[in-house]
Write a structure and sequence with these properties.
heterodimer; A: mainly alpha; 9 helices; disordered N terminus; B: mainly alpha; 4 helices; flat
Chain lengths: 225, 114
């Protein structure tokens, strides 16, 4: 039987409080910092996940450096000048798009922290549009290459180009899926447990900035050097 | 109306002030602008007639600067807790091992098999 105060809170929070309270008993330190680590568990989990992602992309960067350094100076196996064979203007445009999306996801989080759900939704919506624009540009770039007869099996250069940009693209798609959830059904949590929802946006933002960070290094490594 | 008041009281102390949000937003826009300028520099360098060694050095130096800005300000590493910092220091060490070990192998291959 619910007490009077529980019944009032349920009315205030739209009925979601009870479930959240039960969930917080199961998942500790989702809102407040853990006394041992100083950060809430979700944030530490996200950083450890990103550390594993560093090693994933690190292995590919290592392969790129090894293949680049080991490529002969001339002949069919020589490493081509990427400025001549890849579409630098499109890649530069995508860099600008991704940097802009990193700014908008920060703005979404900043305004959510100020309690302004409307502004959060606006900037999160812009972030999703920018992420989709990135994928559209990437699709145009890939289509050009496939139409010209270049694919991952063409050479070491194209193998690393398609593997690294393809894996990065999958991360962008994953980010869009998370953002769509947080903008849509996931945003209901703001009414019942705003601090926890703000934390979720911070974690999603950390992931997105990492995706931006990877592109910042991919761009010169693949397109310019 | 009463429900709204109760709700506001329940969430009191959760939210930042609008002024704080504006300051934070301004800082994010400044960092974003700096990243755009650095991107333009990266592209410009590609068209300069420099050796591959210099191109790699300049390209990676600019990328590292950009990456540091993203990590420090967008990912808040500038004021993050020690547990996160040390986890990343450990990751950076293993990342460097991952990068350097294959290169040493490549170097020794050239010595053994000229």
């Amino acid at each position: 039987v619910a007490t009077t105060s529980e019944a009032t809170l349920e009315a205030v929070d739209g009925g979601g409080h009870h479930d959240d309270h039960h969930e917080e008993e199961l998942l500790a330190w989702t809102v407040e910092p853990h006394p041992e680590t100083g950060v809430y568990n979700g944030k530490l989990g996200m950083w450890l996940f990103l550390a594993s992602e560093v090693m994933l992309f690190g292995a590919l960067f290592s392969a790129l450096v090894l293949l680049r350094v080991g490529a002969p100076e001339s002949g069919p196996a020589a490493w081509p000048d990427p400025v001549k064979v890849l579409n630098l203007p499109l890649a530069t445009l995508n860099t600008a798009i991704l940097i802009s999306s990193s700014v908008t996801v920060i703005l979404a989080w900043v305004w959510l922290r100020a309690g302004q759900l409307g502004k959060f939704k606006l900037y999160m919506g812009v972030t999703i549009v920018l992420a989709l624009a990135f994928m559209v540009v990437k699709t145009i770039e890939y289509s050009e290459k496939f139409a010209a007869g270049y694919g991952p099996s063409t050479s070491n250069f194209y193998g690393t180009y398609f593997t690294m940009t393809g894996l990065h693209g999958l991360h962008v798609i994953g980010g869009v899926a998370v953002f769509l959830y947080l903008l849509g059904p996931g945003s209901k949590m703001f009414k019942t447990n705003p601090k926890r929802f703000i934390n979720r946006i911070e974690c999603a933002g950390l992931y997105w900035h990492f995706v931006d960070l990877v592109w910042i290094f991919l761009f010169p490594a693949l397109y310019l050097i | 109306m009463a429900a709204q008041t109760q709700k506001a009281e329940a969430h009191e102390g959760v939210f930042d002030t609008v002024e704080h949000a504006r300051d934070h937003a301004k800082k994010a826009l400044m960092v974003g602008g700096s990243l755009m300028v650095l991107t333009a520099i990266t592209v410009a360098v590609a068209f300069l007639n420099v050796s591959i060694g210099w191109a790699v050095l300049i390209g990676m130096a600019v990328a590292t600067t950009k990456g540091s800005l993203v990590a420090a300000f967008f990912m808040h590493l500038i004021d993050e807790k020690q547990v996160v910092i040390w986890s990343l220091v450990l990751t950076a060490f293993f990342f460097l091992v991952l990068l350097i070990v294959p290169l040493i192998t490549e170097g020794s291959m050239h010595v053994v098999d000229p």
